[in-house]
C-alpha cells in the first residue's frame, strides 16, 4: 500500500492506512479527545450530525523528540484552535466534519474505517481544499499525523514531528502538480 496521499481532483486528497488496531480502537482515537490529542488535536466533538467539533493543535505534544518549531509555524507554537461541524457520524465506521482551519469556505474531512485482517483500514479523504498551496500543506500534515497515529497504535514512540513534517512537505511540493 502506498502511504502517499493521492490527489483525487484539484481540491481533494485521499490517504489510506492499514492500522494495527480494531475498528473500535481506531474510532476511539478519532473521537476521544485525550486519545486524539496523542496524534492530532484535543477538543470536544458532539458525535451527531450537526454537532460541533473543536480541535486544539499543540504539535510539540505529538513528538517524542523535542525540536524547534519551524519559522512558518512559529505563530502556532503554543497551539491553535479550529472549529467545525460534524456532517456525518456513523459509529464506529464513518466520521466526517468541516475543517475550520481552511481559507475561505471550510474544507471537509471524511474518515472511513473497515476491518482488515487483525487491524483496520483507514481511508481519509480531505475535500474542498482551496488550491495547491493548501493541498501541499494538508498533504504533509495528514501524512505526518497519520504516521504518529500508526506509531501510537503500534505502541511505538512517533519520533520528531517537525523534521518529519518538513520532509513530507518537500515531497508533496514535488509530487503535487502546479496548475
Provide an overview of this structure.
The protein has a single domain (6-175), classed as Alpha-D-Glucose-1,6-Bisphosphate, Chain A, domain 4. It contains four helices and seven strands, in the order E-E-H-H-E-E-E-E-E-H-H. It has helices at residues 23-31, 33-36, 132-153, 162-175, and strands at 6-9, 12-19, 52-57, 80-90, 94-99, 107-116, 119-127. Strands 1-2-7-6-5-4-3 form a seven-stranded antiparallel sheet, with helices on one face. The relative contact order is 0.22. The model has no long low-confidence stretch (mean pLDDT 94).
Which structural category fits the helices and strands? alpha+beta
**General form:** globular
Q: Give the biggest beta sheet.
A: 7 strands, antiparallel
Number of distinct beta strands:
7
What is the distance, rounded to the nearest whole angstrom, between the alpha carbons of the first and last residues?
27 Å
Mean pLDDT: 94
What is the CATH C-level name? Alpha Beta
What is the helical fraction, as a range of percent?
25-40%
Give Rg in angstroms.
15 Å
According to CATH, the homologous superfamily is: START domain
Poorly predicted runs: none
Total of domains:
1
Order of helices and strands: EEHHEEEEEHH
Number of helices, where a helix is a run of at least 4 consecutive DSSP H or I residues:
4
Amino acid at each position: 500500500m502506498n502511504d502517499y496521499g493521492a490527489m483525487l481532483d484539484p481540491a481533494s486528497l485521499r490517504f489510506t492506512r492499514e492500522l494495527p488496531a480494531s475498528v473500535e480502537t481506531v474510532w476511539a482515537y478519532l473521537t476521544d479527545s485525550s486519545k486524539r490529542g496523542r496524534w492530532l488535536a484535543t477538543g470536544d466533538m458532539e458525535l451527531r450530525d450537526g454537532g460541533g467539533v473543536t480541535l486544539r493543535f499543540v504539535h510539540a505534544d505529538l513528538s517524542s523528540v523535542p525540536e524547534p518549531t519551524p519559522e512558518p509555524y512559529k505563530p502556532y507554537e503554543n497551539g491553535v484552535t479550529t472549529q467545525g461541524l460534524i456532517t456525518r457520524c456513523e459509529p464506529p465506521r464513518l466520521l466526517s466534519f468541516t475543517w475550520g482551519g481552511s481559507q475561505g469556505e471550510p474544507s471537509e474531512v471524511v474518515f472511513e474505517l473497515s476491518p482488515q485482517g487483525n487491524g483496520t483500514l483507514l481511508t481519509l479523504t480531505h475535500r474542498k481544499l482551496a488550491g495547491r498551496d493548501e493541498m501541499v500543506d494538508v498533504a504533509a500534515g495528514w501524512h505526518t499525523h497519520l504516521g504518529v497515529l500508526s506509531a501510537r497504535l503500534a505502541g511505538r514512540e512517533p519520533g520528531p514531528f517537525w523534521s518529519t513534517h518538513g520532509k513530507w512537505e518537500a515531497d508533496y511540493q514535488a509530487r503535487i502538480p502546479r496548475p
